[in-house]
Amino acid sequence: MAPAGVLLGLAAGLVATIIVEIVGQAGGSTVSHPTPAVSIVGDIVFDLSFVGAAIYLTALVARPRPEYFGYRTTPLRRAAIIVVIAAVVYYLVTLAYAAVVNIHTSDKLPSELGVSKSTAALVAATVFVCVLAPIFEEFFFRGFFFGVLRKWHIEVAGRELGPWVAAVITGLLFGLAHAGSAAAEYLLPLAFLGFVLCLVRWKTGSLYPCMALHSANNALALGVNQEHWGALPIFGLTIGSWLVIAALTGPLSQRRLRVARS
Q1: Distance between CA atoms of 24 and 128, rounded to whole angstroms?
Q2: Cα torsion 200, 206, 208, 211: sign
Q3: CA-CA distance, 159 to 200, in Å (whole number)?
Q4: What is the pLDDT of residues 37-95, one digit of tens each?
């Protein structure tokens, strides 16, 4: 099911993106130089295609329920501690990697989305990068793909390694998924981020901490690398993004709780 989800999502995403580009040509966009609106809509429908593929394949086996994909409440204190530890580990490893590789390029995605061309493009790109992308990508990669693969039973020397192997594979795929929007030297850190997010999902049993860390990382990357913001605007963007994500996805876990109580 996991490989099928990747192939189906990729196929549907490519078709959907082509349709968006064709429609966008009527408004003056081109394939080689798409307008910010076409780029943003294209990225949204591409990510949504993977969400749709995950839901469809799950429906072939059982009725899709939010909790299957990790929309579960989790103790806030424990989740916060795990997220902080995961963030510290990720950034320390990334800083060490950057020092060795000498990274000097920035993320290509914000520029492709036209953040420097207009305020409207900046707002739309920020919503996509800090809210929608964390929701869609966490749903597919940690909620579906890792959720399926971690059921592997791989025992070595009496230790169960299935979730660890699943986290490595998911992380690598997560890094490769950003090949079109990130410079090559960023792919390995992104793969490590994908691996860390899998561990967060595993240890908390919930997708919410994963979305929070993913969103915070994107807000930091956007604020520092693209807009050169200070700490306060980045903090405000992070909190604002969390609130929107909570408003959009929180009812999924609440609905499960109401059903359980009835």
Answers
A1: 19
A2: positive
A3: 20
A4: 888 999 999 999 999 999 999 999 999 999 999 999 999 999 999 999 999 999 999 99
Answer for the pair 181, 226: CB distance below 8 angstroms, yes or no. Answer: no
pLDDT digit string, tens, across residues 147-182: 999 988 888 888 888 899 999 999 999 999 988 777
**Cβ pair 200, 86 in contact under 8 A:** yes
SS3 content of the chain, % helix, strand, coil (to 5): 75, 0, 25
Residue 117 CA, distance from chain mean position: 25
- How far apart (Å, rounded) are the C-alpha atoms in residues 6 and 74? 28
- Give backbone dihedrals phi and psi of 240, rounded to 5 degrees, phi first: -60, -40
Tokens of 169: 């594979």
Residues constituting the chain: 262
In the three-class reduction of DSSP (H, G, I as helix; E, B as strand; rest coil), residue 43 is classed as helix
CA distance 237 to 130: 8
Q: How confident is the model at residue 259 (pLDDT cuts 50, 70, 90)?
A: very low
Torsion of CA 96, 101, 102, 108, to 10 degrees: -100
